Amino acid sequence: MLKIIKLTCVVSIFFAGELYMPLFAQEAHDATKKTIVTTIKKNSISVQGVVKSAQTKKPLSGINVTVDGFSAAITNDDGSFKIKVPHLDAVLKISGQDFQTKVYAVKKKDSGIEIFLNEANYSQNYEIADMAAGDKMQYDNTNASTVVNFGKDQWSNPVNQSVGSFLQGRVAGLTAIRNSGTPSSGTYLTLRGFNSLYATNKPLIIVDGMIYDDEDYGSGIVQNNVSSPLSNIDVKDIEDVTVIKDGTSLYGTKGANGVIKITTIRPTELSTKIDFTMYGGVNQAPDQLPLLGSDAYRTHLSQLEASRGLTQSQIAALPYMNDNPDVSGYYKYHNNTNWQDQIFKSSVNQNYFLKVRGGDDIAKFGLSVGYLDSKGIVDQTQTKRYSTRLNAALRLTEKLSVDANLSFINNVDSQWDQGYAYKTSPLYLALTKAPFLTSHDVNDAGEVSPNLADVDYFNVSNPNAILDNGFGLNKNYRFFGNLKFNYALSKSWDLNTILGLTLNKERETFFIPDMGVADLVLPTAIAKNRSGSEVQIYNSIFTDTYANYTKHLNNDHNVDVRFGLRTQSNKSESDLGLGYNSSTDDFTSVGAGSNLLRQVGGALGEWNWLNIYANADYNYRNKYFLTTSYAVDGSSRFGDKLDGSNKYALMSSLTGAWLVSSEGFMKNLKNVDYLKLRATYGYSGNDDIGNFTAQKYYISQNLLGMQGLVTGNIGNPNLQWETVKKFNVGADLGLFNERVSASVDFYNNRTRNMIVYESISNLTGFDYVASNSGAMRTLGAELALKARVVNSNDFTFDLGLNLSRYKNEVQGLPNGDIYTQFAGATYLTSVGKEANLFYGLKANGVFSTTAEATTAGLNRRLTNGDLIPFTAGDMRYVDTNNDHVIDNSDRVVIGNPNPDVVGSFSANFTYKRFSLQGLFNFSIGNDIYNGLRYNLEKMSGYENQSAAVANRWIAEGQQTDIPKAVWGDPMGNAEFSSRWIEDGSYLRLKTVVLGYDFKVNDINYIKYIKLYASANNLFTFTKYLGYDPEFSATSSIFGQGTDIGLAPQFKTFQLGLRLGL
């Protein structure tokens, strides 16, 4: 540490001299510059070459060829150029209107330099990446990173609604899982797998230089709905996204899971340009799950009632088993209702977006307004988004400029409970409600009444009653903006300050009626109807003040330094009210409910973050690159008893790259355009340990009508951040005039001081306390491959492939194995194994005969300790410990929700003015606990069941894999086991877009007219038996891979028009 301090002092003195000498010794500085330039020119070398189109192979005139800070040239009519370079290791920067910007290493003196340029929107190694310490061309970037250019990318069509869905399949290593098919649903993002058990695994989001809160607001009062603030950003507002996978130490204790940097519209135009986009389309209701019809369901109920001990005469006397039309109630129970038809509805969507850019040399602006209206496929679900953005660049003086990035959105979402909300989720009720009932009352003459049917004989709610008389509403308001001040001290130095503000308010309300809905049992009462209101407020002030220093010495040594200070101050508040039993269903507010039953709650949060950082980039002759980063973090979340050496988190990284293709020995390998080797080693942290987890605090509690304080958390004053040690090696390759490009990376992430919950003495009143006693490692590999198969003037054909694989291993737990429960699934986390593995009994078929069951000699241990032998028709579980008793001691690992490989492949065609693009994404090897199928095949109650149970065991000797139906399931035939684990692998055609670019040369005021036709989620190949193999019911690592019956994704067909003026 002492050496680092000494080095810092020396560097600071050097920088101070560089900073102030221009202010007091301008003439001497200019004289020095002139001498250097003279020396360079004296030792310069003349090289010449030609620039051609990669598509037509014809020469290109008017192309700029430069050597930064040294010389410049423009190609002639025949595409030729002649330019002075300081040495043969120099690099040429080639650029021209409507063409890519390219960097070319000279390497040789002869006139055989031949450079081919592709069109501007061609993906290559020369994109500008928004890295942690500023913009950097991918050509000389030392980190593993990917740039997705929304503005130029051929995939930038107007039909994507969220950033997460747009990024899916476009970045190797980035897993983007749509939470559900509800219109406002966000996307669960992880980068290179998991690094933590209890802290966040989501990457840090930076928008226009400012941290963007992406906490899921999914713990609201409308059950199992997750809305991500990131989905508030319209993709048509975005210029580009840079995904940084390693070397994120500069972000200190927020960079452990990588960084996604989003840049919105840049105000760069001098002339006014208008871009208008509109599209509309149809959302198609999904394929339905096969369920029992009325007759099959009635047969199932007959067998189920018999298992309860009812005689045939008693069963026949039940109202729903009556087959005599003359008996009252016959028509009530003799229908064949497809409840999924009642809930699923095809719907429409529409979007309008206007963007205006313009200005002059003093002030430039980018203004956008947008409106989105998208309905869901569950009846009456909808999202409406109103958005506006103003980005501006003001040049106040020659040295002082100000950039403004301001946005405001208003989201209004209509939504329902979903998932395991057994009494109030319309989707769940549509699957489990008896098919022989209808949504409306039916009299004894068989006439259907306009009145909705009440709760049925089986105490199951009427989903139509919820849709007609209830509501769920989420309103979100967010202001997000910042001002950036830049002052140029000299050609080498500039100072910058970003001042940012986030104001977010979300209000959620719901009402569940009495009519048609099953009662809710409260501790002291029965709730007939119920209502709720919750308000969540989040405010944040962000600052980032930094200095940049740039120095180029003799065109050999290039140094870029940035050091600065970031702060973030955050406050949150939530207030909740629940009301029950209003006088009628016409009174839907919380205040209309019973005073005696009303519940209130809330929470306050406050946390602060300080980040001091420094970064230095060095390269020698654009061949050898070295980057080092340091950050020191302080946070109010850390424990207050940490000693001096641990009070602040010190993060550092070192990255290096070798541009092999710039070496002289590569000059004869004409087909190798680009070859770079990279390596990174560094530390980054995770401060998502909870705002008050390290502290002891008290909460208010009511006991027997008296309000008092009780301990809410025991706290751990020594609690600190998690540290992730990252090691990455990679290579980037370009071949055949960039017709083929590839990037490959291998990484090893090791988490130390991982947050876990450690058991403590029960004398404290608590069972566990958070500690830094865990450890984990994640290994992985990534491959990104692109190829231009055909490259002609009229026709191009591109292929792309992204592959990634990761495998984590838990390396340290203080109390041994961790068993967690989520939605009926049990997860095991154990040292030496991957985290969150499915853990349960292993099913091995169904006992076909009594003799087979007797021979096996297996018994079931009941909760009271009694043993009951398995009989014919029961599940056959593997007795792993050979004690002839099936219980929890026989549980084993039965599945892994983590995929073996995830990826995508794409195909892009252009023919003259037509374009056709397709994107497939896939996942291989991940297991899913089909919790929805569990509820539809457990055969232990009155719920309607899957059509698959028609194959249940009924008679001696029957061969089947579905056990017999028994009321209450006393033998645990439906227990969590491998019976419910399915292969979740899938291949999905995510997007198909057909476009046509109209010719508008004869219309002066129209720049372009583009017509789109698109289809999303067109088809999915999978063996999975649920609605959709892609979902994420929670942001916790312990709930991944469990299907709780969320609304599925759906097919969308759209037409769009984009007009430029």
From TrEMBL:
Keywords: Cell outer membrane, Membrane, Signal, Transmembrane, Transmembrane beta strand, Transport. Residues 146-259 form the TonB-dependent receptor plug domain. It comes from the Bacteria. Its main location: membrane. Residues 1-25 form the signal peptide. InterPro entries: Beta-barrel_TonB_sf, CarboxyPept-like_regulatory, Plug_dom, Plug_dom_sf, TonB-dep_OMP_SusC/RagA, TonB-dep_rcpt-like. GO terms for cellular component: cell outer membrane. It is found in: Cell outer membrane. It is a multi-pass membrane protein. SUPFAM superfamilies: Carboxypeptidase regulatory domain-like, Porins. The keyword tRNA processing does not apply. Transmembrane segments: none annotated. Gene3D superfamilies: Carboxypeptidase-like, regulatory domain, TonB-dependent receptor, beta-barrel domain, TonB-dependent receptor, plug domain. Pfam families: CarbopepD_reg_2, Plug. Belongs to the TonB-dependent receptor family. This is SusC/RagA family TonB-linked outer membrane protein. It comes from Flavobacterium glycines.
